[in-house]
Write a structure and sequence with these properties.
With 164 residues, this protein is mainly beta. The chain has 2 domains: 83 residues, 2-Layer Sandwich (Alpha-Beta Plaits); 48 residues, SH3 type barrels (Roll), CATH 2.30.30. Helices cover 10% and strands 32% of the residues. It has 2 helices and 9 strands, in the order E-H-E-E-H-E-E-E-E-E-E. The strands form 2 sheets. Strands 2-3-1-4-5 form a 5-stranded antiparallel β-sheet, covered by helices on one side. It is elongated and about 50 Å long. Bound molecules: cytidine-5'-triphosphate and zinc ion. Zinc ion binds next to loops.
Length: 164
């Protein structure tokens, strides 16, 4: 875990630098291969906000085989964003970078519940009607379940982001 060569994407001087280091911001490392774009959706990043973002997709990782990596300049993540990230990237590490140094590093943790993030796909659910009811999903091993109507959302989390 602390071996700096364990993921030689850009720490090993003998290897080409694939994604540049950032000065200030957040590096989301060890993202499940192929999930980087979903991570951007979760963070609400589509390029229009002007943030500098670098992405590596399916890059080799000794620990994971292949991983994605997302580097966002000038931005830290909320706990809610980290909670949702854990659902699509359970092995991710969140690295907070200041003046080029990693000043904080932590693994994501699966929450038991996510509130106000996903919208329920059930059109008859009380959370999708005009009532002022915030969405509430409990987190299961194989997906998330609406606390109000029981609808299970398995994989397509990103499509349901934008709850109330
Ligand atoms: N990083 C970066 N910009 C910086 C510092 C670090 O983009 N200024 C990236 C590194 O490239 C790496 C991640 O942030 O992908 C974590 O950095 P670091 O803790 O230095 O690397 P490792 O020790 O390899 O991390 P781990 O043990 O979590 O694999
Ligand atoms: Zn529902």
């Amino acid at each position: 875990m602390t071996d700096s060569n364990s993921d030689n994407i850009d720490t090993d001087a003998d290897h080409q630098l694939r994604v540049s280091k950032i000065q200030d911001g957040t590096v989301i490392d060890h993202v499940t291969g192929g999930q980087a774009l979903t991570v951007l959706t979760i963070l609400g990043i589509d390029g229009s906000g002007g943030e500098a973002v670098s992405i590596g997709m399916n890059v080799p990782s000794d620990r994971m085989g292949e991983k994605d990596i997302v580097k966002v300049e000038g931005r830290e993540l909320s706990q809610e964003e980290v909670d949702v990230l854990s659902l699509v990237a359970p092995d991710a590490t969140i690295n907070i970078v200041r003046e080029y140094d990693v000043i904080e590093k932590h693994r994501v943790e699966r929450p038991t519940e996510v509130v106000g993030v996903f919208s329920c796909p059930n059109a008859n659910c009380i959370t999708t009607e005009r009532e002022p009811v915030e969405s509430r999903f409990s987190v299961l091993d194989d997906g998330v379940r609406c606390a109000y109507c029981g609808t299970l959302v398995r994989e397509e989390f990103a499509a349901h982001i934008g709850g109330k």
